[in-house]
Amino acid sequence: MMKPVVAIAAILLTTPFAEAGPIDNACIRSDRGARSPGLCGCIQQVADQTLSRADQRRAAGFFRNAQQAQDVRMSKRAADNQFWDRYKTFAATAERYCAR
């Protein structure tokens, strides 16, 4: 059996500092029914690994306004297409990783 101090140290050393990122904040504030601190935190962890901070801020806007996502997806601009490719990778990874 692990002593409480050792268990707490193990958790603290393996868990990132609790800093809510733009995706986590947008997810928590979302009016969609699936929001939960655990799920939103998981999605933020995936975002931290797959998106730049600027991409995270841009993607966070999709939680407030789904039309923004559609506009980016349909855009003919190269920068929008490159962002959309990164966003799709993030979304697919989050879906696989956070659906556990």
From TrEMBL:
Q: Which residues form the signal peptide?
A: 1-20
Which keywords does this chain's UniProt record carry? Answer: Signal
What is the protein's given name?
Arginine transporter
The species this protein belongs to is Paracoccus salipaludis
- Species lineage: Bacteria, Pseudomonadati, Pseudomonadota, Alphaproteobacteria, Rhodobacterales
